[in-house]
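Q: Sequence in, structure out?
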Amino acid sequence: MRIFKTRAFGRFARKERIEDALLCEAIERADRGIVDADLGGHVIKQRVARPGQGRSSGYRTLIAYRSETRAVFLFGFAKNDQDNIDEDELKSLRKAATQMLGWNDEDVTALLAAGKWTEVKCDG
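A: Exactly. Output:
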């Protein structure tokens, strides 16, 4: 399983001081079948803890996810800043997820080289 974050999500994660280890934990939970919400179209929502706090008061992340293949962190928000995304945003994310999960290794390499994606490094 390879895990990535988009440039926009990377900025969000840096601003909120969300470390890659927390993103890895979110994907590990999904791999075990523990998904906070399946939004359809290969988009899942996983909670990520705020540093020093629990997941329930933390961040919501929207992820393009295909088990055992690839996960791409697309969007993140703090629960106290935003309740949810609207239907149009979700529709766009589903379309993007389908495309991203269909890209081959050469496409992914090009995105990494261009700085549009970064790879999340997990221990183990």
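The chain has a mean pLDDT of 91.
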